[in-house]
Amino acid sequence: MAMGPSKGHKATKNTSKQTRRGHNGRLTKRTKTVQDMIQEMCGFALCEQCAMTLLKAKDELSNILAATRKAAAKRD
């Protein structure tokens, strides 16, 4: 008498192919190259430009903060 998880006759489970809905929105190689090419030709969008200026300002502020901390540590 067979017992345990492997008892009975062996059967393979039916696996269905992933539907279109499953990989919707994923960036393909072709789409990425086309987007990069368009972005290279047209430049950055306005929202991207604003984000880059904010990032630059953040870097400058962090450098200033680091310098002031360094000066304060040297004073002590």
UniProtKB/TrEMBL annotation:
InterPro entries given in the database record: Ribosomal_eL36, Ribosomal_eL36_sf
Extent of the signal sequence: none
Gene3D superfamilies (alphabetical): 60S ribosomal protein L36 (1.10.10.1760)
Domain of life of the source: Eukaryota
Keyword field: Ribonucleoprotein, Ribosomal protein
Compositionally biased residues, Basic residues: 7-30
Region spans: Disordered: 1-30
Gene Ontology MF, one: structural constituent of ribosome
GO BP term, pick one: translation
Known partners and oligomeric status: Component of the large ribosomal subunit.
Function in brief: Component of the large ribosomal subunit. The ribosome is a large ribonucleoprotein complex responsible for the synthesis of proteins in the cell.
Similarity-based family: Belongs to the eukaryotic ribosomal protein eL36 family.
Name of the protein described by the UniProt record: Large ribosomal subunit protein eL36
Organism this protein belongs to: Nyctereutes procyonoides (Raccoon dog)
